Amino acid sequence: MLRKAKRVFQRIAVVGAGGFGTAIAHYLAELPSERHGGVVLYGRDAMVIDSINSLHRHPSRFQDFHLSPKLIAVNSLSEALENADLVILSIPAQHLRSLLRQAQPYLQPDVVLLNLAKGLEIEGLNTMSAITNQEIKSDFTFAVLSGPSFAHDVVQKNPIGLTLGCQQRNICHDLQVMLTTPIFDVKTTSDIRGVELGGALKNVFAIAVGMLIGCKTGDSLAGDLFTRSMVEMREIGLLLGGRWSTFSGRSGLGDLAISFTPASRNFRFGQIYAESYDANSPSAHENCFRATIEQLGSRTIEGFDTLDAVYKISQRKQALTPIIQALWQVLYDYELAPTDLLSEIRKLDARRYREGPNVLSILLHELVPHIWYRRLK
Length: 377
Hints:
By secondary structure, the protein is α/β, with parallel strands linked by helices. It has 2 domains: about 10-190, NAD(P)-binding Rossmann-like Domain (Rossmann fold); about 195-350, N-(1-d-carboxylethyl)-l-norvaline Dehydrogenase, domain 2 (Orthogonal Bundle), CATH 1.10.1040. The protein has helices spanning about 20-30, 45-55, 75-80, 95-105, 130-135, 150-155, 170-180, 190-215, 220-240, 245, 250-260, 265-275, 285-295, 300-315, 320-330, 340-355, 360-375; strands at about 10-15, 40, 70-75, 85-90, 110-115, 140-145, 160-165, 185-190. It has an 8-stranded mixed β-sheet, with helices on both faces. Strand 1, helix 1 and strand 2 form a beta-alpha-beta unit. Helix 4 runs parallel beside helix 5, helix 8 runs antiparallel to helix 9 (about 220-240) and helix 8 packs across helix 14 (about 300-315). The longest helix is centred in the middle third of the chain and has 23 residues, at about 190-215.
């Protein structure tokens, strides 16, 4: 049992009225009153805000589900952030920097910023914590919540297990106590970078496996791609400062597992892209991308943006990442058709064995697990 929290947040502002932001805001609003002092949800779309306040429904997400009547929605950022000591950021990764610049004048001293976005910034190749550190000049504490979870499971109160990353131990504990319920299990770590990278990278691999499924490769291949994806996730993640154990946990392995299903928007993006691709079209990739976005309802595809960022990082670090490199050639370089993806992955992956293991590979696959399991004995 968790010990009692030292701090109770008096006002929680959830920034972003998309699917997951709305789901988390609803979940928090339904918690007992002793857990926090109230929740407000910020969104830019006036129709969404009016629908949540008057009908307790989101007009485009969970239309058949009644949201908590205790949830208040506003379309004024300053109003949402007024006196908020906990701000939950649930917006696309590429928009976080501009949002923080708008929010800076309204943030309270020593505010806690809890990020839910899963992505990397294309322009600066930054994680969300790096962007926040660059933009927020006042005192704050950063935390990240990630792991295997879909918005519809949150609103339907289905069991979920998540990882909370935060380097301030007391605040991390207070957040854990507030969030944890019998159906919402939260474990903690100080490895913010690892939690962020696991959530961002899994979206890229979800697109790849969805694309291969869309090419009618059968069901068995997903297992092969899963293991290859874990290798690439760990190698890139460790190069960028994450920990081995984090990628083996909920925010890495766990999140990757549920991303290889049609419930994942990134998986569906890859699948629809492959099914829509017409090699005989003079603008095959552009037309295919447009048709895919339209079919998905123009929702954010974090994995597409993250792919470009992580490809540039892997090139800079000279990391061998066959899935990332081959998928980038399909979606950005237009050198490959979706049907060429598997053969290119296997061609690039073969280099891993022809060139032999490097020092990093030996550490990753032999020494680190050996030390880890000895520690657990």
